[in-house]
């Protein structure tokens, strides 16, 4: 049941995020129905291409009536593609190093996607949630995932991962979204939904 | 042929030379290697949290520094390690994101390292090498044949401890 609720929040959030991204890039972006998975910690990094896969993680802490954290993660190739679209770079630019300008573009993409998820959560629950500025890290997937996984670890032995696949005519990219309310906040979300 | 045994997040395993043991992409978690240099038996645990007594759901022993180390020793003794010979090498406990506030949630890597050291000290197991803290991920491999701990990070030289 709780799982279905989070999937639904994921669906609506993904829709909002797609619209926002399309407007920002000024191109059509499609997003598929997100895949929601509850995973053992051991399996977590296999899903995102292995623990050593180089990824960009953008993390926000949550405050207000709900506290916790959320993170948006993409592999470096996907991030490069989005940055190229956003800044009008040619596709020949495949560098895994990002300039200052590109890093702030990535932060902005993270902001848009996270904002879209949060506003769908707020709409469904009538709960006010505010998020921090984005914090970004580029490193091995396992290392990036350890931060939200530890938060999940305080309440259980599994982590909830929402995988979204989106793209333009040229290519599809995968993004992963993780939302971790604290135990108290989780109860608040469910009760506000009448569950 | 020797085998590379994998240890996942909140997981542990043991190994005897010529096999080796690894855990990939340690971030704020800590990788603890215990080693009996005489029998060439090693064990590795990838812990996520400092203290099992602070958490209600604490069945997975490998998730915590305190119970993870106890369980690792138990399994190593079962395959013939000598408790008195054990030494430790530890890595990880990074702060992956540069948070502006210094809340508890943000210091988790540091707290994992502190809890690991305290537990090892209580057990009288000396720490022979350490590569902890800072802000980047680490993959570690331990070779019981030589006692070497190899540390790999993105865009950095390999280290052998």
Automatic annotation (TrEMBL), chain A:
Keywords from UniProt, A to Z, are:
Chemotaxis, Hydrolase
SUPFAM superfamilies assigned: CheC-like
PANTHER family assigned: PROTEIN PHOSPHATASE CHEZ
Q: Which residue numbers delimit the CheC-like protein domain?
A: 1-37, 101-134
Q: Name the chain's protein.
A: Chemotaxis protein CheC
Q: Which GO terms describe its biological process?
A: chemotaxis
Lineage, broadest ranks: Bacteria, Bacillati, Bacillota, Clostridia, Lachnospirales
Q: Name one GO molecular function term.
A: hydrolase activity
UniProtKB/TrEMBL annotation, chain B:
Q: What CDD domains has UniProt attached to this entry? A: CheD (cd16352)
Reactions accelerated catalytically:
L-glutaminyl-[protein] + H2O = L-glutamyl-[protein] + NH4(+)
Q: List the keywords (alphabetical).
A: Chemotaxis, Hydrolase
Matching entries from InterPro entries are given as: CheD-like_sf (IPR038592), Chemorcpt_Glu_NH3ase_CheD (IPR005659), Cytotoxic_necrot_fac-like_cat (IPR011324)
Q: Which PROSITE patterns match?
A: PROKAR_LIPOPROTEIN
| Classification via Pfam families | CheD (PF03975)
Q: Which domain of life is it from?
A: Bacteria
EC? 3.5.1.44
User: From the Swiss-Prot or TrEMBL record, what is one GO molecular function term?
Assistant: protein-glutamine glutaminase activity
Give me any GO biological process, just one: chemotaxis
**What does the UniProt function comment say about this protein?**
Probably deamidates glutamine residues to glutamate on methyl-accepting chemotaxis receptors (MCPs), playing an important role in chemotaxis.
Recorded hits in HAMAP family, A to Z, give: CheD
Q: Which family does it belong to?
A: Belongs to the CheD family.
Tell me what this protein is called: Probable chemoreceptor glutamine deamidase CheD
List the source organism.
Answer: Variimorphobacter saccharofermentans
- Print the organism lineage: Bacteria, Bacillati, Bacillota, Clostridia, Lachnospirales
